[in-house]
Every structure is written in C-alpha cells, then in structure tokens.
Design brief:
- Belongs to the lyase 1 family. Adenylosuccinate lyase subfamily.
- This is Adenylosuccinate lyase.
- One of its GO terms (molecular function) is (S)-2-(5-amino-1-(5-phospho-D-ribosyl)imidazole-4-carboxamido) succinate lyase (fumarate-forming) activity.
- Its EC number is 4.3.2.2.
- The protein is mainly alpha-helical.
- The protein has three domains: about 20-90, Fumarase/aspartase (N-terminal domain) (Fumarase C, Chain B, domain 1, Orthogonal Bundle), CATH 1.10.275.10; about 105-145 and about 160-190 and about 240-360, Fumarase C, Chain A, domain 2 (Up-down Bundle); about 360-440, Fumarase/aspartase (C-terminal domain) (Ribonucleotide Reductase Protein R1, domain 1, Orthogonal Bundle), CATH 1.10.40.30.
- It has helices at about 10-15, 20-25, 25-45, 55-60, 70-80, 80-90, 105-140, 160-185, 200-205, 210-225, 240-270, 295-310, 310-315, 330-355, 360-375, 375-385, 390-410, 415-420, 430-435, 445-465; strands at about 145-150, 155-160, 270-275, 355-360.
- The strands form two sheets. The protein has a two-stranded antiparallel ribbon. The protein has a two-stranded antiparallel sheet with strand order 3-4.
- Helix 7 (about 105-140) runs antiparallel to helix 20 (about 445-465) and helix 11 (about 240-270) runs parallel beside helix 14.
- The protein is elongated.
- The two termini are about 25 Å apart.
- Residues about 285-290 have low confidence and may be disordered.
C-alpha cells in the first residue's frame, strides 16, 4: 500500500527510469559489495593466503540472497553499515565468516562500488544519448530541405532549414558524447589500498611481498571487469572523479536545456510543437492551451543537474589529506540524484523528438513575411545588371525598406516592399520579376548539403557502431 505520510523524491517517483533507479538501489549496492568480497577472497586465495575454495564457493552461493533485515538490525547496534553487512554475510556463510573483508577497509567495498555504479550509470546515459542522436538524425534528414527563418538575437536573419537547425542540437550532444566517452574510458577502481592508501595491511598479509600487493589490485580490477586501479590514492579514490562524472552530466543538461528553449520558442511561433496527448489538459483555466510541458520539465531538471555539479566540486576541494568523512552524506545525494535527473531529461528529450510536429504552412507564412527584406541584395544585383547604379539603388532600397517596415510595425499591414520597389522607376523591374526571387530555397545556402554531410560523416558512424543501443523507449510520466 502506498504511503502518503513521508517525503518521496520526485526523481524516483516521477522522472527517472526503473533501470536507472535500480543502478542506485540498495540491492544493487549490496550485491556489488558481495561481488567485491568474493573478488578479494579469490585474489587472496590465488596469491597464496590460507583461504580455501570451499569458503569461496560458500560466498558465491549466497552472493545474491542478501539478508537485509539481519544487516539492518546489526547496524542499529554497531552503527557501521559495512561491518553490519560483513556480519550478515557471515551468518549465511559460517565457513567463510572469518575471511570476509580480510585486509580491507570500508572504502574497499564503498568506493569500488561507487565507481562500478557510476560506470554502469554512465553506460545507460550513453545508450540514451545515442538514441536521442538517432531520432534527431531522422528528423534532420526528413526536414533538411524545409526552409525556415533563422534567428540571431531572436530577430529574423537569413533563412536556414528545419533540418539544419536540428544538426545544431546534435552537434552539442556529439560534444557531450565525446566527453562522456573520455571520462568513462578513464575510470578505474580504487582497488584495495588500505587505511591511508599504503596497502600496509596487505604487505603484512603477504609477509612483505610488495609484488603481491601490486598484483592484488590488478586481479581485483580484472575480476570486476575493469582495466586496472588508480596507481595511488589515500583511503579513498580522489573525489575529483565524482566532479568529472557530474561535469559530463551537467554538459548534457546544458545541451538539453538549449534544445528545450528552442522548442518552447518555436511552439510559441506555432512552427513546431512537442507531442500533446489526446486527453492532455494544458491549463486548469484556459482550456485551449497546449503548453510545452515536456520541454519545460527538461529545462527545470537541467537547471538542477547544472547546479548539482557544485556539490562534488565542493567535496573534492575540501577533502583533508588521505580522507575525511564530510563527503559521505553529500555523495549519497548529489551523485545518484544527478544521474536520476539526467536520465529523466534524456527520456524527455527522446520523447519530444520522436513526436515533434512541424507546421510547414506556418513556417512558410513567417518566411514570406520577411523574405522581401532578405531578397534585396539579389534584387539590387539584378537591377545593376540592367544598368542601374549600385549606390543609388542601395539608398533607395534602404529608404523603401524603412517604409515597408513602418507599414508592418505601425499600421499592422503586410510587407509591401516588393510593391514599393516595382513602383519605383529607379529599378526598371516588374512585380512579377521581383516575385521570381521569392523562392525561399534560393536563400538557405549550403544548409541541405551540410545536413547530409554532417549525418554521413559524423553521426551515422556513431550510430552504426552502436546499433545494439538503439531502440530504447522513453519512460515518462506525462
């Protein structure tokens, strides 16, 4: 039965997928602790310590059936989460009880698990990022030839195409993917470094054999699917790694926020619209409204992720010497919730792009209202070819443009610049000849070609390399 008498995080209740929530769940964490204890016991066994295969087999037999209640009850007594789970595991594995966690500190399971979980979470983020790029690529290709007004300073500028604008969103996500891959490829485990990072306990266990101290870290890393461990550390891995990871998430949030801004502005212009459910209510008072709530939610969550980056930065910068514990409470909040929020953002991004509605007639109407101004240079060049004076024509076009602009802004009339030019004897041109310059496709430059080349040279190689990650369906609560 649902409980309504306590706070529940909206990130888990409303925004993040079940898959991302599981990665940061207690079950995932404590299962990973047990895998790490097994890897440690196996490595110690292989390096000659008195740990038997029977003990290791017993540990493996109970690696997934975690006795949470026993651990919880024990923690109330000893006030230590790791030792409580060592105790609970020992209840299930009486033969292996005495060798669980041998030589290790709490950070052996805590920090290694954090790296493993962040790695898996980044892999899920990467998968969703690829899927967003795939949907944007389809959209860009579909609308690569659709002229639309471009804006600088949100003022009408030279035309572009709807597809070309989509490549701008994609380019930013491509940069985010580059950053993600770099950080993901550089993550390493802490290994088993001991209380201050010197591996003193393991040097004692291995009777002064430094070579075995080096080997145990590499063996643990390989058993856990990592290429290696950080070569040096204090008791913990450097908290700078958390800020590097959150920086990647904040970068994706920046890109998503920019996209959501553009969609909200385009929806205001009625040129593009995010998906709107058949029975969706836009406003409790204004029944006609179709609010861009998905894009607004993206922006809201993106603000949270960008501000969340400050948490690991503050933690990393204020650690003392080999470790302090003022990172713990902050890490429990900032890292999981940063991932849960970016997961929700990418699901929204995927959902919006998959259902974007484009209104070509509205786009064309806005384009044609501004195109006479943009065509003036071509008109001037054509008239010079017919014998006109470039400087005189430039001045006349400037004056007529001001007049046409005044008619639009002050009188609410349509743009009549072409009629004004046709009526001016300085131009020696008819209205029909001027209208022949009013094909928007003449003014989009290389935009369609740029879309084709960008998709072919930059995006499709990424999609082809990651075919197995495509097809993710967004989980969103509308």
């Amino acid at each position: 039965m649902a409980s309504y008498d306590r706070y529940v995080s909206p990130l888990s209740e409303r925004y993040a997928s079940k898959e991302m929530q599981y990665i940061f769940s207690p079950e995932k964490k404590f299962r990973t602790w047990r895998r790490l204890w097994i890897a440690l016991a196996e490595a110690e066994h292989e390096l000659g310590l008195g740990i038997t295969q029977e003990q290791i087999d017993e540990l493996k037999e109970h690696k997934d059936d975690i006795n949470f209640e026993e651990a919880k009850a024990r923690e109330k007594v000893v006030r230590h989460d790791v030792m409580s789970h060592v105790y609970a595991y020992g209840l299930q594995c009486p033969k292996a009880k005495g060798i669980i966690h041998l030589g290790a500190t709490s950070c052996y399971v805590g920090d290694n698990t954090d790296i493993i979980i962040m790695t898996e979470a980044l892999q899920l983020v990467r998968k969703k990022l690829i899927c967003v790029l795939d949907e944007l690529a389809k959209f860009a290709d579909r609308y690569k030839d659709q002229p639309t007004l471009a804006f600088t300073h949100f003022q009408p500028a030279q035309p572009t195409t709807v597809g070309k604008r989509a490549t701008l969103w994609m380019m930013e996500l491509k940069l985010d993917l580059d950053d993600l891959d770099y950080v993901l490829g550089s993550l390493r485990l802490l290994g088993s470094k001991g209380t201050t990072g010197t591996q003193a306990s393991f040097l004692e266990l291995f009777n002064g054999d430094h070579g075995k101290c080096r080997k145990i870290d590499q063996m643990i890393a390989e058993k856990m699917g990592f290429p290696g461990c950080y070569p040096v550390s204090g008791q913990t891995y450097s908290r700078k790694n958390d800020s590097r990871v959150l920086s990647v998430l904040a970068g994706i949030a920046q890109s998503a926020h920019k996209f959501s801004n553009d969609i909200r502005l385009l929806q205001h212009l009625k040129e593009v619209e995010e998906p709107f459910e058949k029975n969706q209510i836009g406003s409790s008072a204004m029944a006609y409204k179709r609010n861009p709530m998905r894009s607004e939610r993206m922006a809201s969550l993106a603000n949270y992720v960008m501000s969340d980056l400050m948490n690991p930065m503050l933690v990393a910068s204020t650690q003392w010497f080999e470790r302090t514990l003022d990172d713990s409470a902050n890490k429990r909040l900032s890292v999981p919730e940063g991932f849960l929020a970016i997961d929700g953002i990418l699901d929204l991004y995927l959902n919006v792009v998959d259902g974007l509605v484009v209104y070509p007639k509205v786009i064309e109407k806005h384009m044609m209202a501004e195109l006479p101004f943009m065509a003036t240079e071509n008109i001037m060049m054509d008239c010079v070819k017919l014998g006109g004076d470039r400087q005189e024509l430039h001045e006349r076009i400037r004056e007529l443009s001001m007049e046409a602009g005044k008619n639009v802004k002050e009188k609410g009339l349509d743009n009549n610049l072409l009629e004004l030019i046709a009526a001016d004897p300085a131009f020696h041109v008819t209205l029909d000849q001027l209208k022949s310059n009013m094909d928007p496709k003449k003014y989009v430059g290389c935009a369609p070609k740029q879309v084709e080349e960008f998709l072919e040279e930059v995006i499709r190689p990424i999609l082809n390399e990651n075919r197995g990650d495509l097809g993710v369906k967004a989980e969103i609560n509308v």
